[in-house]
Write the structure tokens for this entry.
Amino acid sequence: MTLALRHAPAPTTAHARAATRVTRIDVVLIGPRGQVGTALRTLLAAQAPRLRAQSGIDLHLLAAADRHGLAFDLHGLDPLDLHFDHHPQHTATLDRVLNHLGHPGQPPCIVIDCTASAEVAARYAGWLSAGVGVVTPNKLANAGPLARYRELQDAARRGGAPWRYETTVGAAIPVLGPLADIRQRGEPVRRLRGVLSGSLSFLLDRLHAGQSFDHALREAQSRGYTEPDPDEDLQARDLARKLVILAREAGFDVEPEAVQVQPFVTSRASGNAEWAQRLATTPTDQRWVVLAEADANGARVHLATVSNDSPFAALRAGENRLCVETEWQSDKPLWLGGAGAGPQITAAGVFSDVVAAARQLAWRR
Ligand SMILES: NC(=O)c1ccc[n+]([C@@H]2O[C@H](COP(=O)([O-])OP(=O)(O)OC[C@H]3O[C@@H](n4cnc5c(N)ncnc54)[C@H](OP(=O)(O)O)[C@@H]3O)[C@@H](O)[C@H]2O)c1
């Protein structure tokens, strides 16, 4: 008997080049002093040297800005030691930096938007079509009108620029990536059903444990689980945005106004009474969940009770879980889950997107 030994294939020229070459990628971080932005800077400082050594990708923090200041250095900033210029003209300076990005001869560049700002989101299309990569956990751009969602996909294609927003749904849980893979292999998605609000599942965990609504909300806020404006969570607006993005990535053409939304509370002031009343009449073998669903008939967010043995009932505080039914996976659907909220884990997901975007830009050169 002869044994056929299989050798690893010789590296291609491109592989060999990548192993030895270092590619500088400029990074502009918007919202560096927010919860996610701060956690991301810690990751950048800790992980950039390893990334440079292992992958030849040199992430170079060129600028960091919010509405109150700008830090900028052509030689690169220390992510953990930013010195902000609080000059009132700093936005004009940032604009000059941003307008310059993507020009021929400049290093490839990624803008990371860690704000919840519509104003910043309005600039993505321009950056993408100029070849500048955009990475963001900000939902506003992709959850707006369908035409805008498509415009951004087109701009990224035209500019050959990475456009990554995995953390807009399910924080660092890979959700949008698997959906893209499923669609790329031609497998139609039939139905999505998920518990996708880390903040609302945290509140429900605490409510079922006997805490009052007010108390649970304060705890969720102090842990950084809620949106900057908690009414975004309580009125399920934030969840509806996630559902719009998720549905679109699954191939359902949803407009935001068409999503049926049941809020978590009528108002913050009535939350204690509403939930005390609801829980008083809930059988002990049932649990409340906030379900987000989409299929060919549309998208909806609603409160529902599920039995204690449902996979949705077993979620711990802050967890998300999504069930994906497809043409080929209907009796055994795909389940995705994990930590769905929190600045640290969201920043980790953003950093994954930054690394993937940087690789795409490095290979483009
Ligand atoms: N926290 C989470 O667990 C989580 C999970 C998933 C997704 N996200 C998303 O991540 C994003 C950031 O969340 P966060 O919790 O980090 O919010 P945050 O703590 O409020 O931070 C946002 C930062 O953005 C800056 N900012 C706001 N508007 C700006 C503008 N127009 N231009 C420049 N900077 C601006 C703010 O600084 P100034 O006020 O000084 O400008 C602030 O420091 C949001 O889109 C959120 O939906 C968060």
Observations:
- The two ends are 48 Å apart (CA to CA).
